[in-house]
Write a structure and sequence with these properties.
Two copies of one chain form a homodimer.
Chain A: E1 2-9, H1 15-21, E2 29-33, E3 38-42, H2 44-53, E4 59-62, H3 72-82, E5 85-91, H4 96-104, E6 108-112, H5 125-151, E7 153-154, E8 160-162, E9 165-166, H6 169-182, E10 185-187, E11 191-194, E12 214-219, E13 221-223, E14 232-238, H7 243-262, H8 269-282, E15 288-289, E16 295-296, E17 303-305, E18 312-316, E19 329-332, E20 335-338, E21 342-345, E22 348-352, E23 357-359, E24 368-369
Helix pairs in contact in A: 3-4, 5-6, 7-8
Chain lengths: ~375, ~375
Amino acid sequence: MKKARFIYGNGTTSADLRYGSGFDAPDDFLYFESDEERVTIVSTLEFDRARSAVPEECQVRNLSDFGQVRSPAELIAAVAKTYQIGEIAVPQTFPLLIADELRRRGLSVTPVAGCFYPQREFKTPAEVVKILAAEAIADLAMKTVAEILGAATIDDDLSLRWNGEILTSEILRGEADACMIRRGALPDGTIVAGGIHGACPHCRGEGTLFAGQPIVVDIFPRDLASGYWGDLTRTFVKGKASAIVRAAHDAVTEAKLRAEDRVRAGANAAQLHQYAASILEKHGFHTGIDSDGYACGFFHSLGHGVGLEIHETPRLSSRNNNNLAGGEVVSVEPGLYYHSWGGMRNEDLVLVEKESCRVLTGTPEYFELA
Amino acid sequence: MKKARFIYGNGTTSADLRYGSGFDAPDDFLYFESDEERVTIVSTLEFDRARSAVPEECQVRNLSDFGQVRSPAELIAAVAKTYQIGEIAVPQTFPLLIADELRRRGLSVTPVAGCFYPQREFKTPAEVVKILAAEAIADLAMKTVAEILGAATIDDDLSLRWNGEILTSEILRGEADACMIRRGALPDGTIVAGGIHGACPHCRGEGTLFAGQPIVVDIFPRDLASGYWGDLTRTFVKGKASAIVRAAHDAVTEAKLRAEDRVRAGANAAQLHQYAASILEKHGFHTGIDSDGYACGFFHSLGHGVGLEIHETPRLSSRNNNNLAGGEVVSVEPGLYYHSWGGMRNEDLVLVEKESCRVLTGTPEYFELA
């Protein structure tokens, strides 16, 4: 009896499955790899498509080859029997019900703690090209946003008007998203958050946009052809920013650029985070809980890995004491959030190199738009 | 020690989590419910947003309330201790690594086979309204597709031309997707498959579209505000269809409409599938493997439940011998696929009612466009 690594799911729920099998499908399917073979097992519905998608060295089998199986556990048990596999390693997110059933049938099932494919953290040149392509789509969408905010006019009550209509978060997001999806990238949750909505980092934003307020625009498209993500944030002000918003912009931009200056192989993730945080502090922006009980200041991490997942290893957070090794693609995104005036975040994607980092983002440092 | 039901994940990977907690976030979070309480536990980053999203009877706790936890298993163990919980039921997809760790710590962890919330299968009036809203967005996108195909001209080589350009699957999909995303719905994998591409039911389609060929358009937007899906397919021919494609259209349309006539509380799912299959057979369209080894005919199931997941219980498949109970929302989508001429699928969403079904789709029976 031999050992093998199994993944069960689909390319949307499991980046590892897409990475390992080279295939993606809307419905769950099975993939396993051993020292002797790599096999993707799909239904008749996906069989032809899988055959033309998987790498040459991989086999595709039809699940009907394994008899009348009535559940994923029965399928995996039948596959294990066919290939004489007795020990199975699975991703940490492997479904518990299937694992329990396989164990009852006498198979050894071990979840792999951490990354199932640790090499996913370090991008090959081909992967960097795919991330660049996704980030270029984010750049285009951000350009669309800047053009619309630039073309917008300001009504007497400071609300923005574009194309004859009041300009809302929903409309501006719709234009950015339309730009991305026309290029085959899926924008799953674009943030266009003006004023107070921007004080909550994951609020998507809603309603009328106004002159003078910061408008946080966070764009993260997944290129559907490759499965890789881009990630990009800028904060705009239509017209003139208040003194505090300008100060926040200067602090965040300085923190981003100076942190990027320190990103390289050997840099410590937690120290990068602390360094950016210290720059924000030095500018007078404190992190904590405000008098109304809201979190304020810089209360998320400086960045995260980006690849087949929008949030993946490594995290540039105060809790990650590892050093960067080179080859990672990470976001660098300091932010400030206060319920008194809103949010300010500025984010690039960078590739960690030996002596420095390579910025993969092409968008300029937007801020005030006349 | 009491019992509770725990869900860990995010609203994209777990429809149950969104259903139970009423909340959605891009990063993983924890929810549990017992006889005494319903609690959502999120990071500081999501705390304010969660507080305003969850139902009134639910609490939101900050994960920092549970000490310095370094993993989801530590968090769940700390929560279980705080709330004196000794037995945990989880969805069948609960991550194995967390379950193993909790069991090592002495907690009983049991995956619930099948639906974690069986009531998700039966839609409340409020849920039907949400599905209707999503389906209405699909209807609008299909109208856009029909308008573009109607406006397209035919070049000498039969390729379609629109807006001064050769019309491709990518362009037509982009316009449909832009329509949906502008309305706040996420179209994750729209199919626009012309000719031979349509012979593979899950091929998204690519390249130039031609007159005379069947163009399968399958649109399934998720309304991001509610999380509910719509699902809609039509097959178009620009210009005149060949005799075989017309015969396939007639067969599929008859199978769909006559199957819908039989959808009601008490109808047997497998029999509905077999009934549609028999109509296709009667029209002379056989299911099996063609001389080149490709699956052909009607080789997927007649339909599937739609709600917070695009594919959910119940399946209208030959393997589901259950009767419908009323309150389900299901797709009805017979299809035919042959490598000799392409694909033909026609799909509505319907609500199962006591004596009949209510069609939730507003799109007409498109086919040939002049």
